[in-house]
Amino acid sequence: MIDWSEETGIWKLDTPGTTYLIGLCEGRWLGHLYYGERLQGTAAQMAPALGLLRTGEPPLPPGEDIGEEAGFRNVFPWEFPTCGGGDFHEGCLDVRDEFGQSGAVLTFAGASITPGKPSLEGLPASFAGESEADTLTITLRDEALGFSVELLYGVFRDLDVITRSVRVVNRGERALHLTQVLSAALSMDQEGYRVITMPGSWARERRLQLSDPGCGTVISESLRGEPSHAAQPFVGLVSEKADQESGRVYGLHLVYSGNFLGRTQVDENGMLRAVLGIHPWHFDWKLAPGESFVAPEVVCTFSAQGLGGMSRTLHDFYRRHLIRRPQNGAWHPILINSWEAAYFDFDEEKLLSLARTASAAGCDLLVVDDGWFGERDSDAGSLGDWWVNPGKLPHGLAWLSARLRELGMRLGLWFEPEMVSPDSDLFRAHPDWVQRCRSREPAQCRNQYVLDFSNPAVVEYICACMDHILDSADIAYVKWDMNRSLTDAGSSYLPADRQGEVFHRHVLGLYRIQEHLRERYPSLLLENCSSGGARFDPGMLYYSPQIWASDNMDPVSRALTLEGTALLYPLSVIGSHVCKSPGDIVGRRVPLSTRAICAMPGTFGYELDLRALPERERAQIPEQICVRRLLQEVSDEGDLYRIASLRESGDFDCIEVMAKDRSEGYLFALQVLEEPSMRSRHIRLAGLDPHRTYTVQRVLWPGEDDEEIPGQREPYLRQKREVLTAGGDVLLRAGMLLQRPKGDFVAELFVIRAVESGESRQAR
Ligand code: DGJ
Hints:
Blueprint: E1 2-5, E2 10-14, E3 18-25, E4 29-37, H1 69-75, E5 93-96, E6 107-115, E7 133-142, E8 147-156, E9 161-170, E10 176-189, E11 194-197, E12 209-211, E13 217-222, E14 234-238, E15 249-254, E16 260-266, E17 271-278, E18 285-287, E19 292-303, H2 306-321, E20 335-337, H3 339-342, H4 348-361, E21 365-368, H5 396-406, E22 410-415, E23 419-420, H6 425-429, E24 449-450, H7 456-472, E25 475-480, H8 502-520, E26 525-528, H9 538-543, E27 546-548, H10 555-568, E28 574-575, H11 592-599, E29 605-606, H12 615-618, H13 620-637, E30 639-644, H14 646-649, E31 652-658, E32 664-671, E33 681-683, E34 693-698, E35 723-727, H15 728-734, E36 736-738, E37 746-754, H16 757-763
Parallel strand pairs: 20-21, 20-29, 21-22, 22-25, 25-26, 26-27, 27-28
Antiparallel strand pairs: 1-2, 2-3, 3-4, 5-10, 6-7, 7-8, 8-9, 9-19, 10-17, 10-18, 11-12, 11-14, 13-16, 14-15, 15-19, 16-17, 23-24, 30-31, 31-32, 32-37, 33-36, 34-35, 34-37
Helix pairs in contact: 7-8
The protein binds (2R,3S,4R,5S)-2-(hydroxymethyl)piperidine-3,4,5-triol (DGJ).
Residues 339, 369-370, 414, 481, 483, 529, 531-532, 548, 551 line the site of (2R,3S,4R,5S)-2-(hydroxymethyl)piperidine-3,4,5-triol (DGJ).
């Protein structure tokens, strides 16, 4: 709900549990008053909050002391700060005029409130119907340069989320250059907040880190043309005493897949300013008269229930308002992927024999990864040559998909559409289609160049290539990969004064092709991937309901990556497979049951040569698939609780997922190393109904000693022992003990079920 009071000059934006206040000073300057727990009352009743602008303290606003205007600009908590006029913190906007001079000064020009939420042209953005959200548009104007800025706030009625984005419109008669357009800022007093960042690397993505900014700056950024393995387009602020389930937490998450800057600064006066948006480095967007530029959306949330509260809001928000599923609904195939099973070394027979084993175990989809096209037998060539390699697949894709159909499986295919190999027919025909600076040769990475998506002809060509392949066979799934950072970001298509647009235009081209795929193949399941998890961002989520999280599938590494990833993203989107042991990236020997349990909180699939497994292990796979299917719905739609963190404990990781109706859930526990002479682990469950009774039952795999209940098909329902029955209040407050399993790298899966009321009374 959005309320405006002309009398106080305050906008009050309410979600179910939060309030966001914006206020006008002297009728001109737009300031940020408050974001936090919901406040009762109307905008008119918020007048006392205007005091938070500190406009009664020197340096006074220009209306009262024109001689100290610059000083005022540096201390005022701007709702949308600009550069060059006296605010020496990071600003959101900088503009260069025809004289080469920079700066922007914005004053209030008007506002409107509309039901629903508009889409952002060419960009991914959350969506909502007229009954689900309202939009506040505040227009600011730079009188000197003749442009306006529209600040768009989407205020959601079902969740504690406010989205922000920005449209800059050139209303003057001369071209301007936007050299910095960040999407959102949050200015407030520093009250002991720590900053969440997610540094990482290839095979070590999104490792949660909390930093104290002191009097200084914490930066999360990417200059690589994508968010990268090394950072997440997110700014999180966590109050001093916050933990998983209590304390104040702010989250700002950018719906964008390119260069970004997230900067949190605490200044000498104790003011905290967080900003987030497209990185200003190498950004220079020419705005001709009448043109407009839209900056990507930021999803803002506040939680007074700690990190877990923020996570659950974001998960629900992405599931309800950002992810567009294929039109055939939520299809969750359990797949077998050829990459770590065969790398480039496959042919029809090998693929089909892998598929036969996988289909016997219960898999739904064979994904033919890198190597099916051109003359590709290694990563040395053929990117861009999107036709079937006749040596490997002489009967073609239609034939292969028909054979898979006979096995009850579908076909999935890998593409890397943004790239071209120097050794390819495409590059030989169009050497000018790569990103490069005129005066030097571009740098190769993984033996490849990046295509110039600022050139519409290149984007059209790639669409046509993909259509040709996807029209040729029954292809149910596409894995879109991207295996190098952008360098030498120059375009032979754009004029000199638009070269600063190349990075952003690349992202727009990427979005265009993925939108095209969605329109033309409405039931295609798209999974994004970038050399593991280098482009795991909300922008990609708008086009693909799942994203490959990391090439590293080792359970211990994955537990650390999952903590960061699942802090922001629902489990249903997190690409996760069972790998071989020892793995190709981390050489740990890990039991198959551990690898499977650790892949279950995610999309789930297999990425190893199932044929090479000993019979004893192969026999476990149908059971694993059966269990995974049983927990699918809860895992995809339920609430996530972090019970223990490997990052903090060093030896134990534990998460719980509970259905929204609190009737059923799962507990995933991982012990890293066994230690002698240690007592059992004491944990407290979460998300249960304190008035109900629950059973907690460990899943036993075939071969584990237990007496079976005849006739029960579901693995975890057919065993008799290892059941704990207790009231929800006991499990929530007093907690329960987990016995330490024997051995290293042991994962266990527990099923939590509410006992029906009759049984419940008996148990109590
Ligand atoms: C990187 C991906 O993350 C892998 O899963 C695989 O698809 C390779 N690229 C193929 O080149």
